[in-house]
Amino acid sequence: MDTSPDLPKAPPGYRLQWDDTPYHVEKLLFDHWRTLTPREKAELGGQACQGLHEGLKSGVRARHPNASDDELELRVAFLKYGEELMHRVTGLELPKP
């Protein structure tokens, strides 16, 4: 971590949000987020969710290369929400490989 005297220091008792990010970078990020409108914040959240979904789907596709797109989406939903909830809500079981 950079310990340059010109960079802002974390206030006493402040707990960093991420182990690999110095305080001055966190401060820049939070300061930026404060300038965003609610719509812009919602768009960022939506993009993060879409990125997570695509990453999960890519991993599922690597493990199940012959699965249809519908099966891939189902397997992603089971990963995201868990077998118990998916079964309770849809009545479906996770397809066995």
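the 2nd protein, sequnce then structure:
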Amino acid sequence: MSASTLGFVGGVGTANRHHLRAGYTRISSGAMHQLVAAIAAEAFNVPLREVNAKLHDEKGQVSVSLAVPLVLPLDNVGERFGKGGGTVFELADAAKDVMAARIQTLAGTNVGRVNVRLTGIHDGKNVSSRRVQ
């Protein structure tokens, strides 16, 4: 991933400038891929091993393509996104918004698009409650 794809154009506020050191920090494409997959697993409440994520550079922004299973039952899935429920499409849209925000926060990367393909059913059990931070 290039610096332009990652959205770093200075990125740090002036209040923290006294902590900056000469040099650069680069996120490898493999690390970025793993980070996005972990964020997706968290957002969709599925095990990481069931997430297939692909990243593409789209005019300086990251485009994410995901294949994830749908979590059933849907009883309390909407509550995780501040919604009382909704269609599968509405819940996927909410998860996409969460993903884009988390990627921006953790990697400083602007996300242009998140495409989701629901690939099956997952019961929502045996999912680690750890959060990507």
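The beta strands are 52-58, 61-71, 111-122. The chain has one domain: 14-122.
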